[in-house]
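Hi support team,

I submitted a single chain yesterday and got back a structure, but I'm not sure I'm reading the token output correctly. Could someone confirm the output below corresponds to the sequence I sent? I've pasted both exactly as they appear in my results page.

Thanks,
R.
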Amino acid sequence: MSDDITGTTAADIADSVRSLRDRGVLRAGNPLPPVRELAARLGVNRNTAVAAYRQLAQAGLVVSRGRAGTVVAGIEAVAQEGYAADTVLRDIGTGNPDPRRIPDPSRALVNIAGRPVLYGEPVIDRDLDDWARAWVAADLAADFRITITSGAVDAVERLLAQALMRDDAVALEDPCFLASIHTVRLGGYRAVAVPVDDEGMTVDGLRAALDAGVRAVICTPRAQNPTGASLSPERAAALRAVLADHPYVLIIEDDHFSMLSQRRYETLIGPDHRRFALVRSVSKFLGPDMCLAVAATDPETAERLAMRLSPGTTWVSHLLQRLALTQLTDDAVTAEVAAAATHYAERNAAFAERLRARGIDAPASDGLSLWIELPRSARTVAERLMRRGWLARTGDEFALDDRAEPSRHLRLTVHDLDDEDAATLVDDIVSAVR
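Hi R., thanks for writing in. Yes, this is the structure output for that exact sequence:
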């Protein structure tokens, strides 16, 4: 197949590979010839072949695997959040909020009707903009502007797109939120893993990522998914000190658990940092179907985002904006959110205590799920749990490095289990471990 590649310029060679791929001559996983071999066969300079492969990589058509060579790229399946489809098992790996804890929007829906919004009008509801500014003002020392997006994942995707090119490096927490893994891969960026411990993203890991040339850092300041870790004040200060020498690296903080969190917000964004975004979505407390997030960004980033949020194309519905604002300013709704926050914290803490009493390490961290460390392979335990009627997620799904050792962690969503089911699950986990 490599003999079919033709061309004397980088563009011609890249077009030839693209054509072979489109015609099915080259398929996903097929290796391309080494650069020196291809250059010699085509009678071109080695740098020409290198440039051709670089063009193909930037277009997402090939993947470089170091010493293993360059192969034709395929569509890699990435695990998704939410309930597993077509299973009779009790799903305890969803990462979902409890639907009984999501406020009913019926009363708010009655109050959002108003005059239609037309093309050319501001894309952000003025009252929501005012409310959002007050929401984040106490947490950001730097000057910022508000942008409204269709959820946190949409915000992250747009933020990366306005700042990066294909093959640019992005620092991600490891283990990592599934949507962040998917967004970075789909965008054609290179993920650089930064380990996470009990205090959040590690200082040495961030320093190494910056030395590797990352142009963006995606961090979860509290209730990190999947570990539940939150930044401590000391860790946040140390990370800001490292980032002080890199003011133009884009910092994206995904504060997804904001109103439900039991932890104080700590930030990587210093007062003099030039490129940043604090993203807060409403999906965890108003429901996943409320696809709306507030992004507080530096003014230049806000201008770039505004160009991608024109009326009639990618703006967020004003009806949705009004609905969110009506609920967020309703005392009864905010009381329900506060009660939900207490419920999640108490149920997770109680389950973690049950596990610890049986000899299994389970910190009662923040978030909708628990990150359970096991004395053996998580895959083995998950398979044994399946025989007992449970469907759990292993830490392997959240790992950035495919070559890493098999995970010894489970991410469990158990806040909706009653006491009897929780006790049964603990018994089954202990049996599966043994």
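A quick pointer for reading it: The longest strand covers residues 190-197. Let us know if anything else looks off.

Best,
Support desk
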